């Protein structure tokens, strides 16, 4: 259910009806309380500087905080391609683990396409902890600790957000010291639970967050999303078993459990997250129902864009008909870079509007773009149920708009439109929301 209800009051003494204003309950304060709490263990130092054929890579040692007597140490890299200069806005990617070859390639590729320095923060979260737990098992453990103690500092997303906030502090200090330059704002991005972290970093209200680009975290409005999983899959996704095994999903019908999910659900903070948003999802992600975004898209405030990567799972790498994935998720990288470039250099992203006029299993899809498109296409997939995780997506590059899409005689057909653009030589794509059609008996 929505978190607020528009109530209609009839005043008997007056000839007119008066409508109350929608009331959105204030989000819990635990996130902001934790992130803004003073912590003297924060520190940073430049550990290394390497010159490569592609550019310069700085490596910073960062201590973001001490959380429940555990010191969170991180590596923080800054990628500066040859020929680029520092800018007032920097993209900050957060991820787990430590620097490696793959992250180095991705960092330099993004920075080269954006034409500006890009930072990568590692070790989000600090792990393994509590008997070797990591990733979702670790998050679930901290959720249980919150329910046991009622201590609002326990949910692991909070120190994850604080590590990003302290990385912004370190990067600003680094830029002043190394470059004699002031970095004022950031585009926060990351994938999966690090996409979750990106949403919640914006929810803190930190004015340095200029924009966010959360990847593959298609689960805002979590109570509704849990219902969506049951409707699409018949049961919760096996990918969230760390939460189901700890009896966190289905969400227990208790005051403490409801507050926990409010504390960590970006949808609850939607009125505070008004910065531009670039949402990137895979069309075959095993975590989420295919049309999960439709549950929260209309609630988002401010400028927003979507990219669906066809035939891609949680890693956003497109797979060919034989299931072989591409080496680098270029569709996602190009759109992420275009969004980053638009924010760094204050260039407008293309404005898109779409309308799906659906009647009796037939959709007339109309798409308009404020910017020139270099191509437009329709992607479709079929499935026997609303579970499209194993469906094969095909493109129709000859589609004329408005495009007409028909429900199949049996089963379900999903579709969306994709528009292609060129931003100063950088080719990238954006998408409409997707829809699922069926013939209703």
In CATH, the topology is named Rossmann fold
Strand percentage lies at 25-35%
- The assigned CATH architecture is 3-Layer(aba) Sandwich
Number of helices: 9
Question: Largest sheet, order of strands side by side?
Answer: 3-4-5-7-6-8-9-10-11
Outline type: globular
Q: How many structurally independent domains? A: 1
The CATH superfamily name is Alpha/Beta hydrolase fold, catalytic domain
Classified by CATH, the class is Alpha Beta
- Bin the helical content: 25-40%
**What's the main sheet like?**
9 strands, mixed
What Rg is obtained from the alpha carbons, in whole angstroms? 22 Å
**Gap between N and C termini:** 27 Å
Report low-confidence residues grouped into runs of 5 or more.
1-22
Overall residue-averaged pLDDT value: 93
Description of the molecule:
With 441 residues, this protein is of the alpha/beta class. It has helices spanning 30-36, 101-114, 135-149, 157-179, 193-203, 222-233, 241-244, 255-264, 330-344; strands at residues 8-10, 17-19, 43-51, 55-67, 70-81, 89-94, 118-121, 185-191, 209-215, 277-282, 304-309, 352-359, 362-369, 375-383, 394-396, 403-406, 412-423, 426-431, 435-438. The strands form four sheets. A nine-stranded mixed sheet has the order 3-4-5-7-6-8-9-10-11. Strands 14, 15, 17, 18 and 19 form a five-stranded antiparallel sheet that branches. Strand 8, helix 5 (193-203) and strand 9 (209-215) form a beta-alpha-beta unit. Helix 1 runs parallel beside helix 4, helix 2 (101-114) crosses helix 9 and helix 4 (157-179) crosses helix 5.
